[in-house]
Design goal:
By secondary structure, this protein is α+β, with helices and mostly antiparallel strands. It has 2 domains: 27-174, no CATH class; 189-268, no CATH class. It is built from 9 helices and 7 strands, in the order H-H-H-E-E-H-E-E-E-H-E-E-H-H-H-H. The protein has helices at residues 7-11, 23-31, 43-48, 63-73, 141-157, 189-202, 206-210, 225-239, 255-268, and strands at residues 56-57, 60-61, 77-86, 96-105, 119-128, 175-177, 180-182. Strands 3-4-5 form a 3-stranded antiparallel β-sheet. Strands 1-2 form a two-stranded antiparallel ribbon. It is elongated. The protein starts with 6 loop residues before the first helix and ends with a helix.
Length: 269
């Protein structure tokens, strides 16, 4: 008969009533969440729960948060590549496109490709103009496209299906046509001519005037059609004496040359 089967030994056992456990261990066990299956119905909510409040913008994860959560749930990012790049320039109205590829070392044993491949690859492609991104990022279309493309690739790697990255979000001032966001119409050459004419008559520095409000523009072509209409109305009120000019610098006839140089500098940043 073994000691375990001996009834006398069992009867002589003393049971301690005051058995205590470390509260930190209890809390850690209570807060431990078993990850759901990768890409299951519960997966999206689980991934979103991993973001800190500081890593969410209106409920959408920012790029830095996507990097952290991706490396936590999938594995470290081994390589970032720019496969395609179109810089913004005057002829394309400073429209920039960037194609980014991320290589992630697969460390999550629950991933369906674990053991089959050592890494997963995701691509992201983003297009940016001076009017489909939040200021001040809209002033740097190439860099913004790169961040958007990377955030898109990370979102795809994490299989986030019911949200977009904060970097991909479209400003509220843009018009939405059905389910497709359509950038607001840009300033027209006719509007530029009118603004130039009134600024010349009122002896107001044009480039200083367009930057006298909350939104700052690196160059004239970043202004939307709606903003241009408001500027023209305000300039008419200044010319008629109903409003005071917000700038004190006089009109500069060479503003077009300066505007062009600014646009070139922005497209190469």
């Amino acid at each position: 008969m073994s000691e375990i089967d001996n009834p006398e030994i069992l009867n002589n056992l003393e049971i301690e009533d005051d058995v205590t456990f470390d509260p930190k261990i209890i809390e850690e066990v209570a807060n431990t969440v078993t990850p759901p299956a990768f890409n299951s119905e519960e997966w999206h909510d689980y991934v979103m729960s991993q973001f800190l409040d500081s890593e969410l913008d209106n409920g959408n994860p920012i790029r830095d948060g996507l990097v952290r959560v991706t490396e936590k749930l999938l594995g470290p990012i081994a390589k970032r590549e720019v496969l395609g790049f179109q810089a913004g320039h005057e002829n394309s109205r400073f429209h920039s496109t960037v194609h980014v590829r991320l290589t992630i070392l697969l460390k999550n044993e629950n991933h369906p490709l674990y053991g089959v491949y050592q890494e997963v690859i995701e691509d992201g492609i983003a297009e940016t103009t001076g009017r489909n991104s939040q200021p001040p990022y809209n002033l740097h279309p190439s860099a913004t496209s790169s961040s958007k493309a990377e955030a898109q690739a990370l979102r795809k790697a994490l299989r986030l299906r019911r949200t977009i990255a904060a970097d991909e979000a479209t400003p509220d001032e843009l018009v939405m046509d059905g389910e497709v966001y359509v950038p607001e119409t840009p300033i027209t050459p006719e509007q530029i001519t009118v603004i130039d004419l009134i600024c010349k008559r009122a002896n107001i520095s044009l480039l200083d005037f367009i930057n006298s409000g909350e939104i700052k523009y690196a160059f004239m072509e970043q202004i939307t059609n709606t903003k241009a209409q408001r500027m023209i109305r305000f300039l008419n009120e200044i010319q008629s004496g109903k409003q005071t000019s917000p700038v004190s610098k006089p009109y500069d006839p060479s503003w077009r040359e300066k505007n062009y140089k600014r646009s070139i500098n922005e497209s190469t940043n």
